[in-house]
Amino acid sequence: MAPPLLRVDNLQTHYFGFGGSRVVKAVDGVSFTVEAGETFGLVGESGCGKTTTCHSLVRLLAASARIVGGRIELDGENLLDLSPREMREVRGRRIASILQDPMASLDPLFSIGNQVGEPAYYHGLLRGRPLRRRVTELLSAVRIPSPEKRLREFPHQMSGGMRQRIVGAIAQAGGPRLIIADEPTTNLDVTIQLQYLNLLKELQRQSGVALIFVTHNLGIVAKMCDTVAVMYAGRIVEMQSVRGLFYAPRHPYTKALLDSIPKLGNKDPLYAVPGQPPDLSALPSGCSFHPRCTRTTAQCRAEDPPERRDDNGGLTRCWLPVEQPVPAEAVHG
Amino acid sequence: MAEPLLQVRDLKKHFSVKGTGLWGSAGTVRAVDGISFKVNRGETLGLVGESGCGKTTTSKLVLAAERATAGHIEFEGRDIATLPDRQLRDYRRKVQVVFQDPYSSLSPRMRVGEIIGEPLHAHEAISRRDMRARVAELFELVGLRPDMARLFPHEFSGGQRQRLAIARALSTNARLIVLDEPVSALDVSIRAHIIGLLEDIQQRLGVSYLFIAHDLAAVSHLSQQTAVMYLGKLVEVADSLELCATPLHPYTKALFAASLPSHPDEAREEIVLSGEVPSALNPPSGCRFHPRCPFAMPRCSEEEPALAELSPGHTVACHLY
Amino acid sequence: MADITDVARSLAAAPRLVWRPLRFMRELPTIPILILGGLIFVALLAPVIAPHSKLDPVTPTKAQCMAKFDIDNCPYVDGLPPVWISGGSLTTPLGTDFLGRDVLSRLMYGAQISLLVALTGTVVAGAIGTMVGVLAGYMGRWWDQILMRITDAWLTLPSLVFAILLSSVRGPGVWNVVLILALVFWSRYSRAVRGEVLALRERDFVRLAEINGIGKTRIIFRHLLPNVMNTVMVLFSLQVGVAVIIEASLSFLGVGVPPPEPSWGAMMSEGRDALMEGSWWLAVFPGICITLLVLSANMLGDWLRVRLDPQLRNR
Q1: Distance of alpha carbon B144 from its chain centroid, rounded?
Q2: Could you tell me if B73 and B8 are in contact, meaning their C-beta atoms sit under 8 angstroms apart?
């Protein structure tokens, strides 16, 4: 059987501050796989480690962060073994990224044509007229009207939605097998967001590219993803097919998130998860979610639950998953 | 029935935009172009729309931070444009705002106790002791410990800062609070807290809210009535539950289609709008929505539809009806 | 709601506040702090720790009088070298000047003058410049136009030449120099402060204060000024060095602090001729002092700039 497109195995990325005296385990043992053409959702709130995980995948970390353990295998090849030069070959060509703020991703000084063509140009794939043709193709693939005219225009002349689509075109330009999209629609209006998500799905269908979608919005996950991993305090606490996640969430955090989202046409009181997202430099003992969980036992407070995998490739990190009955000692609300 | 707390009639705000030459204007931005709505006492009106629809300008007008070009804003029966200065100050006391960004709405170098007490301080001569007591009361109301009053804003989390912003808005016994995207910048699990807090406060104190947001689900959860805005005009106003059950205007339907499903199998009428939101400088003729409307008829580009009541409490501006 | 207060308690916990000052001290830049601290210490305690007077010559020993003038006693012995050179004496470790005054003591008293003048002058300049910047940035329109044009014009004036011009009008004297420093340097602050205020004005908390009907004066003092203090402090520390040099230059040229007060600049001026004759210590030691002061002020200012800039911090 062919290896999965991406296999992440026990990835650990830590931030080192104050001359090494303070260590924040931003990513603490994350493992997942992404198959070719799959859409993989990475869900969590701020500080859970999802963005650091993405940065680790392309090895573009802040100066104070380091990958301290694990493997990242792209088509069977461990990216952590590559030299900086080899890694540059990977970025843009085999893995591309789409970030949250399109204005920050686009250089205001260079034309659209220049920026969309850059990955292909840099990786030595195309030059001159074939390059221009490819750029025009890419722009029309992302539904930019009159793409030939746009080649000479600049980012500030475009609307937010169009800019994000241009960023999508740049991501496609090197012909990657995997695109990492980190909250790409957070700054967009909802109707534009819908256009954009449909566009991404269309691009996927055409080119077979796999997509890692990082978001805190479960609605996007429901629409776009095949498999979902929920992150909390630097770990994956649940991973399942998207239907499984929504119909039968296993981890109490996932269930709490689902219950706390307002649903259209429903005025029932929302469940408010008590407490705050955790401070990664001062994690609680045992399971990092236990202070906010309604189903904690003594074991939850003392021991960190291990990853439990099931037959479908799903994963749960919990002593007392939702489907199990709650023992008397854990009921304290 | 009691008169509404806030009644807005045919409100307009036009900005003139400078031309590229030395003089002359390039045109007028009709940010708000004739909207009417009311907010009842102790209730919430949700105002939904995307960027450029005019909801931010509307909030500024209601807060008297901008002067209307035309139309009336009546608060407790009186037109605020005609209020003399002293009563305008009183209006500012009674109408407060909570902004979207919890990180920039609190003055970074002031202690939070002072920040919360500031509106009170500005409006009444109040002794320090009374002020401290009132601040403590407000802290408890929003679920924070009063001894945190001496801390600075950066020592609080985003959700806590929004609580502080809400406490500040309540400090002068406001009757109406304009909520400008109060939860958009917060983590998902914290949003439920803040929405719950707002509901709680409304029940306890009878405060009214003008809830401005783009998240239909949150708006319809908190509001009794929802109004949908597009390019300076209201296209549909209805009771929130009814709006969710039977949206009538195509734009409303598109908003619903776009506000993502709550689970993967949820059936939705897929309406994907084409194109971008047009500029308010040059709105389309006739019905402003017609260039993007999947149901557009020839009449739509010629004649602008008026808001008509289709069922009790449910008004729509569309030629389909 | 109990859960929230519990978690909130752990967030705003007292322990963090207690060891925060300790953590702060570990991050201070040691060398500039030590140097500046040392200079300030000397300046404050000069009358107590200076071995000799700043104005009167050192009473020479009989041996020294014999060695120099070949008489039994004399009012002063001039030109004594530092102690490590032959002819030097431990009582005057850095030597004496042409009037027999002890160089070390004069340097110590000179610290008083340099620090006093530079600090005060910079503070006053900062106060004027900040207010101008705040008013221009916040009040906008006419205020902005007029104040900024004045600032721009003022900035084009070359500082030393302008200072000399002002001193010819006011005459020499310590407080005159302070005034001159204030007048020459205030405009350095206005531009930067105005920029900050323009950005601050758009922030929610200022808009909110305006919506609440809070008066402009209160907004300026409660909301704007405290938030521009970071920028002002950085500018201040960087300007102190410049002020020291201008003061020294003025005194060097004879139009600053008048003799016989031992300003370091004046000492250098007086030592100029002696330099030719070989008594290098009269000009070099004051020069070293000026260098140390300016260097450490600049290093401190640079550290402050990095520390106070939210984007550059690693926290």
Answers
A1: 25
A2: yes
CB contact under 8 A, B196 and A190: no
Rounded to a whole number of angstroms, the distance from the CA of B110 to the nearest CA of chain C is: 8
CA distances (Å), origin C238, targets C118, C188, C245, C299: 11, 11, 12, 8
* Calculated CA dihedral for residues B110, B112, B116, B119, nearest 10 degrees: 0
- Spatial separation of the C-alpha atoms in residues C37 and B79, rounded to whole Å: 64
Tens of pLDDT along chain C (315 residues)?
334 444 334 444 434 444 455 555 666 788 888 998 999 898 888 888 888 887 888 877 777 777 777 777 777 777 788 888 877 777 788 888 888 888 888 899 989 888 888 889 999 999 999 999 999 999 878 889 999 999 999 999 888 888 888 888 887 788 888 998 999 899 989 999 999 999 888 888 888 888 777 788 888 888 888 888 888 988 888 888 888 888 888 888 888 888 788 888 888 888 888 888 888 888 899 899 999 998 988 888 888 877 776 554 433
List the single best residue of A18, A273, A285, A293 to mutate versus C (max C Cβ within 10 A): A18
Task: Tell me which of C9, C200, C212, C228 to substitute to probe the interface with B (most B C-beta atoms closer than 10 Å).
Answer: C212
Helix or strand holding residue A276 (H, E):
none
Distance of CA B124 to CAs B165, B207, C209, C214, C220, Å?
20, 20, 15, 12, 20
- The ipTM estimated for the assembled molecules is 0.80
A189 contacts in B (CB within 8 Å)? 50-51, 214, 277
Mutation choice for A interface testing from B100, B189, B255 by most A CBs within 10 A: B189
Q: How many CB pairs under 8 A join A and B?
A: 119
Identify the chains in contact with C, defined as 3+ C-beta pairs within 8 A. A, B
| pTM of this structure | 0.79
Q: Taking the alpha carbons of C11, C14, C15, C21 in that order, is the dihedral positive or negative?
A: positive
Q: Which residues contact B3 (CB under 8 A, 6 or more apart)?
A: B76, B77
Query: What's the rounded Cα separation, in Å, for the pair C136 and C143?
Result: 5
Q: Is the minimum CB–CB distance between B119 and chain C shorter than 8 Å?
A: yes
Say how many Å lie between the first and final Cα of chain C, rounded: 31
Which chain C residue has its CA at the smallest distance from B106's CA?
Answer: C205
Q: Note the CATH number of domain A6-36+44-88+217-263+270-330.
A: 3.40.50.300
Q: How far apart are CA C91 and CA C77, in angstroms?
A: 12
Whether residues C223 and B97 touch (CB distance < 8 A) is answered with no
With beta carbons less than 8 A apart as the criterion, state whether B208 and B177 touch.
yes
Q: Rounded to an integer, what is the distance from CA A101 to the centroid of its chain?
A: 15
Distance CA C246, CA A164 (A): 54
Q: In whole angstroms, what is the distance from residue A138 CA to residue B269 CA?
A: 29
Nearest to B229, CA basis, from B55, B14, B59, B6: B55
The dotted CATH code for B6-316 is 3.40.50.300
Q: To 10 degrees, the CA torsion angle through C6, C7, C9, C13?
A: 140
- Where are the domains positioned within chain A? 6-36+44-88+217-263+270-330
The three-class DSSP label of residue B172 is coil
Contact yes or no for C32/C300 (Cβ under 8 A): yes
* A102–chain B nearest CA distance, Å: 16
Of B93, B96, B99, the CB nearest to C204: B99
pLDDT tens-digit readout, A74-118: 998 899 999 988 888 888 889 998 887 777 788 888 888 888 888
Contact of B189 with chain A, judged by CB distance below 8 Å, is answered with yes
- Domains of chain C plus CATH, in order, are 111-308 (1.10.3720.10)
Residues A160 and A187: beta-carbon distance below 8 Å: yes
